[in-house]
Design a protein that fits this description.
With 391 residues, this protein is of the alpha/beta class. Helix content is 48%, strand content 10%. A hairpin with a 4-residue loop joins strand 6 (149-154) and strand 7 (159-164). The radius of gyration is 20 Å and the shape is globular. The model has no long low-confidence stretch (mean pLDDT 95).
Length: 391
C-alpha cells in the first residue's frame, strides 16, 4: 500500500429534518449568502421555503443564482461571481445536486480572483483566497458534498474540465434523504451509475496492496446494485435513498483511493461527450464503462476484473478467469440497462462525426503526455476504439 494523506474535514448533518440546523451552521462563517440552485425543483418540494425562512429568521441576507445547468457553465460561474461582488456576499450555499455544488465551488474560488475564472479551472492560476461554502444535497450522484473537486463546462471551447482546490472543501453538508424522494427515475438511474463509476475509478488498479480499500469499494458497488432498483421502483423508500446518498459521498471523498495508484479513465472519456453533446454525465459513464472494461481486458487486468465479478456479482471463483471477467462485464452492462439507461451513443444523439476529435481531446486534457494512464494506459486510438464500440 502506498503512502497517503486523508483529510476531509466536512461536517455531515445526515437524516430526516437535518436541514433544521442549516442557519446555525451558516452563521459560523458568514451572514451574506449566495443561494445557488438549478431548475426550481427545490421550490416544488418546499425546500426553498424551508431554507429562506431559516435565513430570514437569523437575519441572513441572501441573493440568488438560479437555473444552474446540469453540466454547469463557466458563464454561470461568472454570473455568480458578479452577484458576490455586487452584494458583498461572504458565504455560498448550493442547494441541489453536484451541478449546483460544482458551480458554487468555482464561484468560491473565483470571487477574489481578478482574472478569468476559467484560469482556475484550467489550472493556469491558483485560488488562494476562497469563500466558505456549505451544501444542501438533493441528489445522490457526484459526491461533491464531501470533496474539494468540481467540473465546469466551457461550451465555447468545447471543454468540460475537472479541478480541485483543497480550500473549497465544504464546511458542512446537509443530507436529508427525504429530499431525494422526488428525483425522477432517469436521474436516479444516472446518479447510481455515476456513483458506481466513481468507485470503479479507484477500485480498478493493479498490485497496490490496498485490500481494505477494495473491500470498501465493493461494499459501495453492492449497495448501488441492491438499492438502485429499489429507489427506482419505490421512490419514497427511505432506506434505499439514504444508502444511495451515503454511498455517493464515500465513493469520491478520497477514502477509496487511499494507498492506491489511480488515474481515472472513464471520466475523461465521458467529459468529452458532455462537452460536445451536453448529455447527462451518469448516462455517458454507463454507456462507456462496459466497453472500457472489455477494451482493457488482458493478461495483466483479467484477475482484477474476475475478482470484481466474484466479490461484487457473486460469480463462481472456480471458473476460467477470462470467463468470469467477461461475465462480470456483461453483468455491469445488463445492470445499467435494467435501470433504463440508454446503452449506446447513438441513443443519446452521438454519431461518428466528432469521435476522433473527442478521443484526441480526452487524452490531451488528461495529461500532457497525450495518454490516459490508469488501470491500463489509453492512447487516443484506444479511446477512439472504445467510442466506436459504444456506438
Amino acid at each position: 500500500m502506498f503512502n497517503f494523506v486523508f483529510d476531509v474535514p466536512v461536517k455531515i448533518l445526515f437524516g430526516k429534518g437535518s436541514v433544521e440546523g442549516l442557519a446555525d451552521e451558516i452563521v459560523k462563517y458568514g451572514n451574506r449568502v449566495l443561494l445557488c440552485y438549478g431548475g426550481g425543483s427545490i421550490k416544488k418540494i418546499g425546500l426553498y421555503d424551508t431554507i429562506t425562512t431559516q435565513l430570514k429568521s437569523k437575519g441572513i441576507f441572501y441573493a440568488e443564482l438560479s437555473g444552474i445547468s446540469p453540466n454547469p457553465r463557466i458563464e454561470e460561474v461568472e454570473k455568480g461571481i458578479a452577484l458576490v461582488r455586487e452584494h458583498k456576499l461572504n458565504f455560498i450555499l448550493p442547494v441541489g445536486g453536484g451541478s449546483s455544488i460544482d458551480c458554487a465551488k468555482a464561484i468560491a474560488t473565483g470571487a477574489h480572483y481578478n482574472g478569468d475564472p476559467w484560469d482556475i479551472v484550467t489550472r493556469k492560476a491558483s485560488a488562494e483566497n476562497v469563500l466558505p461554502l456549505g451544501t444542501v444535497l438533493t441528489l445522490a450522484a457526484t459526491g461533491s458534498e464531501m470533496n474539494c473537486g468540481a467540473v465546469i463546462t466551457n461550451c465555447k471551447t468545447k471543454e468540460k474540465l475537472g479541478f480541485e482546490v483543497p480550500l473549497v472543501m465544504p464546511k458542512f453538508s446537509v443530507m436529508d434523504p427525504c429530499y431525494t424522494f422526488s428525483v425522477p427515475k432517469a436521474h436516479t438511474a444516472a446518479g447510481t451509475a455515476d456513483i458506481m463509476s466513481h468507485t470503479f475509478e479507484s477500485y480498478f488498479s493493479l498490485d497496490d496492496g490496498a485490500y481494505l480499500q477494495d473491500r470498501f469499494a465493493e461494499a459501495v458497488l453492492k449497495t448501488c446494485i441492491h438499492y438502485g432498483p429499489i429507489a427506482l421502483n419505490d421512490p419514497d423508500n427511505y432506506d434505499a435513498r439514504a444508502n444511495l446518498m451515503w454511498a455517493g459521498t464515500w465513493a469520491i471523498n478520497g477514502l477509496l483511493g487511499c494507498g492506491k495508484m489511480t488515474m481515472w479513465s472513464a471520466h475523461p472519456m465521458e467529459h468529452e461527450l458532455s462537452a460536445f453533446y451536453d448529455i447527462t454525465h451518469g448516462v455517458g459513464l454507463a454507456i462507456l464503462t462496459p466497453h472500457w472494461m472489455r477494451h482493457v481486458l488482458n493478461d495483466n487486468t483479467v484477475h482484477k476484473l474476475a475478482e470484481y465479478g466474484v466479490n461484487v456479482w457473486g460469480l463462481s471463483a472456480d471458473a476460467d478467469v477470462y470467463k468470469t471477467a467477461n461475465a462480470a462485464i456483461d453483468k455491469t452492462s445488463e445492470f445499467f440497462a435494467s435501470l433504463g439507461i440508454p446503452m449506446t451513443l447513438r441513443e443519446v444523439g452521438i454519431g461518428e462525426e466528432h469521435l476522433k476529435e473527442m478521443a484526441e481531446a480526452a487524452v490531451m486534457h488528461r495529461s500532457r503526455s497525450g495518454k490516459i494512464r490508469g488501470f491500463q494506459t489509453l492512447t487516443a486510438a484506444d479511446v477512439l476504439a472504445i467510442y466506436k464500440a459504444a456506438l
